[in-house]
């Protein structure tokens, strides 16, 4: 009898090992590609993945870093070779391009009954769509608002502007000597477009309209700021970081910039008195949306990828990581709980209600080039706002029509 029991126990133990091994082998691995360079971002992403891996026994999520300069190329090569990840963390204006290429899965129906979807800001969620169909969900967002030097505005006897007309007036009144009243990155690339769209959308136009009264008004605004001397023509060479440095150095009274500059400014200019307000309004409130999305790649692990996305989108989980990434949450309910003791960041969170995605369009980089060129031509007076708008519209129409 003892021999039988021992034998039975041995067999049971062997079966447990075998079935346990089979279970381990059945656990699916979901791979995420990202391009974040900073150790803080990598560490936080790894922690979030480990939180998910520990929460269940069927899926294991792993991450792979791809340098930003190689990211798009690797996605294209991977698509051709059928060697893609299961999820990608991607810059939001690029999302539509890869959806159009057929890389991302259409998950509209799979999330149709997911109640959390209603909590997302409209702008970030729209950046995940192509032709009204959803191909991912937002990860985290940022936007642009107006910084101002408190001492300079006080000395000029003015308050932060709330309208475009007030912006021109306040910028002119705070311009003195080597100090210009206003600055915004206007380089002829996506960074310049990023800022100009605040004005184009604020005029009442879409990303694809510029050759009308609204678009000409937006171009005239940046031209007039330069012609009056309130904004230096050198902004066509300034990145967002350059604009921040000019502001810190006391060469600008106001600037348009994003929340990612806040930690640096607090560290580098602890004695500078500055604040942030919502962007001045033209025809309607507007800001430009920055940040990343989760793109779900077509394949046999879409359901597993969605399980991970739902996990990280849970408000309790999101609150553990979103601030560490320096993001404003793309969910309204989580964003409302952020920065309760940080009035500067609360302004950016409020601005998110008016932030829109660039495009979206599969050929957005070409459209962006046309818009930033029009802005540059207006600023430098190489062309009138009317001529610059007509030229840009011709390029855009050839792409979208």
Total number of beta strands: 12
Question: N-to-C terminal Cα separation, in Å?
Answer: 85 Å
**Subunit organisation of the chains:** single chain
Instruction: Give the domain tally.
Output: 2
Structural class of the secondary elements?
Answer: alpha/beta
Instruction: Write down the Rg.
Output: 25 Å
Residues in helices, as a percent range: 40-55%
Query: Can you tell me the CATH topology of the largest domain?
Result: D-Maltodextrin-Binding Protein, domain 2
Order of helices and strands: HEHEHEHHEEEEHHHHHEHEEEHHHHEHH
Which CATH class of the largest domain is shown? Alpha Beta
Q: Strand percentage, roughly?
A: 5-15%
Strand order within the widest beta sheet: 2-1-3-11-6
Q: Can you name the CATH architecture of the largest domain?
A: 3-Layer(aba) Sandwich
Estimate the mean pLDDT confidence.
91
3D structure, described in words:
The protein is α/β, with parallel strands linked by helices. It has two domains: 26-141 and 290-345, 3-Layer(aba) Sandwich (D-Maltodextrin-Binding Protein, domain 2); 145-288 and 363-400, D-Maltodextrin-Binding Protein, domain 2 (3-Layer(aba) Sandwich), CATH 3.40.190. Helices cover 48% and strands 13% of the residues. It is built from 17 helices and twelve strands. It has helices at 2-26, 39-55, 68-81, 95-100, 122-126, 150-155, 164-173, 190-202, 213-227, 240-248, 262-268, 302-313, 315-321, 332-335, 343-351, 364-380, 385-400, and strands at residues 28-34, 59-65, 87-91, 129-130, 133-134, 136-142, 145-149, 254-257, 274-277, 287-288, 290-296, 355-356. It has a five-stranded mixed sheet. Strands 8-7-9 form a three-stranded antiparallel sheet. A two-stranded antiparallel ribbon has the order 4-5. Helix 8 (190-202) crosses helix 16 (364-380) and helix 9 (213-227) crosses helix 17 (385-400). The longest helix has 25 residues, at 2-26. Residues 8-13 and 15-24 have low confidence and may be disordered.
